[in-house]
Amino acid sequence: MYDVVRRIPRGTVATYGQVAALAGAPRSARFVGFALHSNPEPGVIPCHRVVFRDGSLAPGFAFGGPERQRALLEEEGVVFRPGTGDPAGAAGWRVDLTRCQWRA
DNA sequence: AACGTGACATCTG
DNA sequence: GCAGATGCCACGT
Fold first, then answer.
1. Segments of chain A with pLDDT less than 50
2. 3-class SS at A42?
3. What residues does the Methylated-DNA-[protein]-cysteine S-methyltransferase DNA binding domain cover (predicted)?
């Protein structure tokens, strides 16, 4: 499970459902979120690489703020798209899952 | 030991 | 297509 999250390549993001599926729990996306919340190994578990199915993070529950996450992901090469009239979750910033979603 | 709740996702109406 | 309800696993009370 944590190993799966750790396995997320740099510059890509994975959805809770995706991680859950890889972890062997296709319907336990919530469990994934809880696991990340647990964050047994801070600094090792890239919570910011795990996003909603919409491509956004949990607003307010990010490690240090939505901007921080955007900065990190952007730094890793993840493509962000500004609020194209559909602001969702984190400050209306969503990751381009069509290009940056991690595929096993 | 049991009930309720929680970083989501998916099905049905 | 949108809105509401349900399921999953683990943790807290």
1. 87-89
2. coil
3. 2-78
